[in-house]
Amino acid sequence: MKLTIDPKINGQVSLAYSVIEFTNEAYNEKIWQDKLNPLLKKIETQDTLETIKENPQIIATKKVYQTLGKDPARFRPSSDSLWRRVVQQKGLYQINALVDLNNYFSLKWKLPFGVYDLAKIADSIQLTIGQADEYYAGIGNKSVNIENLLVLTDDTGAFGSPTADSTRGMITEKTTRALLVGFQFEKETIEQPEVKTILETYLINCRIIEQGII
User: Fold this and answer.
1) Residue 196: is it exposed, middle or buried by C-beta count within 10 angstroms (0-12/13-18/19+)?
2) What is the pLDDT of residues 87-97, one digit of tens each?
3) CB neighbour list of residue 32: distance below 8 Å, 6 or more residues apart
């Protein structure tokens, strides 16, 4: 797999990525018991909407959106949306083991994370900027306007972004090979050794094929 960043983004974002092979499952109780439930309880108890607005990672993320011409209030980074949902005590949707861990990473580091089925996308992937009047079918949405939005693309087109991902690369219980991406703004924050340990601990038969930061 080849992962690159379009030079026109000018170092405004870096990607902490992991390529994994694993066996997915509909529900993993230990992920919720050990990781998600304690974190959700902590956020519900300690955080407020003001906490979110003042968070350095959220501020840095939104600043890049604004620089690229995308309104972060209308097209919220997924980390912002998830955190707000938990603060408002709406809980999280339980999807499957890998997606649940993806949400855990996002809430832990307060950064957008995306995860994609490598059987559904090409091996050459680039982070770039969505073109004028460009849309894709989003997970849980009819369509996502990706004009001026950071997007992950392959030779077929865009399939992911730090706001909302497309249905094309969506993770299912049948997924066996996946790309996990953390979008970092301002500075490198995501601790890749910790990501590796958690993936290998909680996913069945998990093997890290490749991991890095670009």
Assistant:
1) middle
2) 999 989 999 99
3) 94, 100
